[in-house]
Design a protein that fits this description.
- With about 375 residues, the protein is an alpha+beta fold.
- The chain has two domains: about 1-50; about 55-365, Jelly Rolls, CATH 2.60.120.330.
- About 30% of the residues lie in helices and about 20% in strands.
- The strands form three sheets. An eight-stranded mixed beta sheet has the order 4-5-13-10-15-8-7-6.
- Helix 4 (about 100-115) crosses helix 6.
Amino acid sequence: MKKFAFDREYIMFTTVFGNFYILNLSFCGFTFKKITPLSLSLIIHKIINIPMANRVIPVVDLSKFVDGTPAERADFVKEIGDAFNSIGFVGVTNHGIPKSLIDGFYSNSKAFFALPEATKRAYEIPGLAGQRGYTSFGKEHAKQSKVADLKEFFQIGQEVTDGDPIRSEYPDNVKTEVTPQFTDLGTELYKAFENAGGHLLKAIAIYLDLGEDYFDDKIHNGNSILRAIHYPPITQEPASAIRAEQHEDINLITLLVGASAGGLELLSMDNEWLAITPGEDEIVINVGDMLQRLTNNYLKSTTHRVVNPPREMWHLPRLSIPFFLHPKKTMDLTCLDKCVTDERPLAYESITAGEYLDERLREIGLKK
């Protein structure tokens, strides 16, 4: 018997007196029992091509921008800019975030969320609008929904170490004494995400013809957030909620490492929900509303959601780790002049990043 794996799905076939028999081919829905060698060849050829043909978002290699030749850097800028202009999402490889660091934070996140509810709630700090520490199950909802998402989460914020006066504006991070590595590794992962995000924004600044350093002073010691999200097993019929209702992110860009289970979907320009499945060691990047607003909708903040698994998989939890890259609160989000045209008239009033964040936190129920 031969067994082939394509994109985590399996084809199993065997030969009897020179005939080929399909034993299982669930990926494409084929139900052949006996086929010719030519048919088998065509099927395998089709399946081999499915991952690229069905890939929802393009993929780019960040090392081509960070360490590449001028031509490679220019190609990267065009690829990521075009992706953000057309679909708002892109996969990134060779991003420089160590796999060991990601794996370690995943492991410690699982350990934290497995703690008793009373223990976790000791790290839920009133008055911080969920911006630091633990936020218990059922607190956050999408801005257009009154039904809470099926999740709990923990947030780690900026730690200013260079004497910048902005330090007084940020609350202290919440340390988890019972699982100390959780927050220690989280702080380390935060800095790695921040570094990768800075490179990505340099490329975007070049794409927008703003100059490579346009975002540097705006995101230095910015108000970014690392969030560990736990979607517990579903134990009863949800009250119209899914794990995370359709929404757009608030910030400039979001960096997301692959979740422990599927469910992430984006809403295409054809109003169709498409599943996003990142490859091995790939992170998913998407445009947030602040960047969409700054570019007067030239770069797209695409609606996305996290759907519930099939009923037979309700018992499985899901863990996700996004990094929401925010600027300082003083950044002016007034639409760039070059992004306002006759074909794309001015869509937004002027607002600062801090004012916009405050507005959105109230909309999603984290701030009263």
